[in-house]
Design a protein that fits this description.
about 130 residues, mainly beta, Jelly Rolls, three-stranded antiparallel beta sheet, 3 helices
Amino acid sequence: MSTHDSLTAPMAGADSRIVGGVQLDIVRTGTGRIKRAIYPAGFRWSTHMKPVTGTETCMHAHVGFLARGRIHVHFPDGCVQEYEAPAAMAIEPGHDAWVMGDEPAVLIEVDFEGDTISRFGLPADHRHA
């Protein structure tokens, strides 16, 4: 039996880097990017990424597919979103988030760098419907 895990295996041709303990693999496609983010168990944005970004909350929108793991998202107004793989995700900017449990979370995202919010028609910040 093979122990190869294609979900986390190295990606040929990807721009690969580790930022705040997160393994990022990015491939440009047309005017956008496909990103694989592997968040390790124990990862929390406010602990691991806040010192890197210098912002109080994550100011990125995340649109994608959670292929593995569980993620808890918390907004300053107290709103909570929880995702468990397999799940589609669309998270507005202005959040903290962390991996729940002992398993890494693997998120496959589509983004347009600074235009992600407008291209997907998302609000610029978290709002209640």
